Amino acid sequence: MTDLTKVIKSETTTIVDGAKERFDQVNEELIKLCDWTKKSIDQEVQDRIASDKAVGEIASATVAEIQSLKRKQKKCPAPLGTASTKRQ
After folding, report:
1. pLDDT (tens digit, 9 = 90+) per residue, 22-67?
2. Within 10 A of 62 (CB to CB), how many other CB atoms are there?
3. What is the pTM of this model?
4. C-alpha distance from residue 20 to each of 30, 42, 69, 85 (Å)
5. Quick one: average pLDDT of 14-18?
6. Whole-angstrom distance, CA of residue 5 vs CA of residue 3
7. Cα separation, 74 vs 72, whole angstroms
8. With contact defined as beta carbons under 8 Å apart, do 88 and 79 qualify?
9. Do residues 80 and 87 touch, judged by C-beta distance below 8 A?
10. Which SS3 state, helix, strand or coil, does residue 8 take?
11. Residue 87 CB contacts under 8 Å (≥ 6 apart), including other chains
12. CA 50 to CA 7: how far, in whole Å?
């Protein structure tokens, strides 16, 4: 019986060691995937923040331009002086 016990113990150890090695490999791959995912999410967040800032700056510049044009429009004299609108 001792020979059979030694064989079973040896086989069991081999199986457990193989499973542990495979587990460690999968664990490493999952850690790399998790790190990559975190970096991708962080990059996406930064890109969206930059995009939002750019859109905000464009919107502010557009509003300022509209306000400037409105001020200029109010200061302009009538193009043909006192002529009626039909003659203009």
Report:
1. 999 999 999 999 999 999 999 999 999 999 999 989 988 998 888 8
2. 10
3. 0.54
4. 15, 33, 73, 91
5. 94
6. 5
7. 5
8. yes
9. yes
10. helix
11. 80
12. 64
pLDDT at 31: 97
Q: Which residue, 7, 26, 30, is CA-closest to 18?
A: 26
What residue spans of the chain are helical by DSSP H?
2-75
Question: What number of residues does the chain have?
Answer: 88
What the block records as the tokens of 40 is: 């991708």
Measured CA to CA, the distance from residue 50 to residue 25 in angstroms comes to 38
CA distances 24 to 10, 11, 21, 32, 57, Å, are 21, 20, 5, 12, 49
